[in-house]
Amino acid sequence: MGDGRRAPERTDMQELRTARTADHPALVAGIRQWWGDTRTPEQARELSLLLPRLFLQHFAATSLVLEDGTGIRAFLVGFDSADHPEQAYIHFVGVDPRLRKQGVARRLYTAFFERAAAAGRREVRAVVSPGNTGSIAFHRAMGFEPLGPEDGDGASHGDGGGDRLPVHRDYDGPGQDRVYFRRWLTVR
Questions:
Q1: Which of 69, 95, 121 is the last residue of a domain?
Q2: Tens of pLDDT along 29-54?
Q3: Domain total for the chain?
Q4: How far, in Å, CA of 56 to CA of 21, rounded?
Q5: Domain at 160, CATH number
Q6: 186 is in which domain, residue-wise?
Q7: Beta partners for residue 88, in sequence order
Q8: Does the predicted TM-score (pTM) go above 0.90?
Q9: Among residues 12, 94, 97, 156, which is most buried (max CB within 10 A)?
């Protein structure tokens, strides 16, 4: 493509492409539907508020969408840090429950890692709720390491022990504890 965008990657009739601002309504609908089996409708709606349109207005070029003939089936919203040129950050990932355990999230993360490394980023960071054991296990399997307060972002976080993981107390506000992860990249 002559406009600087990458050509779509295709596998098994699924297209992995760069996100667009116009994808926002579908991503919000996906969050509300895909998490509806584990949350009340109100909780799923609140979760969707973690992905305001501005993420796609400003970070679409570093975010990914997987779609097929039925629509968007998975997404990863991430960005290159403006304040830390060596870092990229994964903000939100969603996979249609019918595609889980099929390597879709791994595919999204791997594509994000490759793009971040090509942009000169040396590490990717992410945060996970301490109670989200599935996501913690996935991040560890993808090569992420949990960071203690001394390795974090320089802010003052208390740490607690949840499952031998350093937990950053009140990371996202009062009562919003997080496990902070880092994965090193091989820069080309």
A1: 121
A2: 999 999 988 888 999 999 899 999 99
A3: 2
A4: 5
A5: 3.40.630.30
A6: 127-188
A7: 80, 124
A8: no
A9: 94
Q: Are residues 17 and 93 in the same domain?
A: yes
pLDDT tens digits for range 79-88 = 999 999 999 9
Looking at per-residue confidence, does 188 or 183 come out higher? 183
Distances (CA, A) of 89 to 75, 95, 185: 14, 18, 12
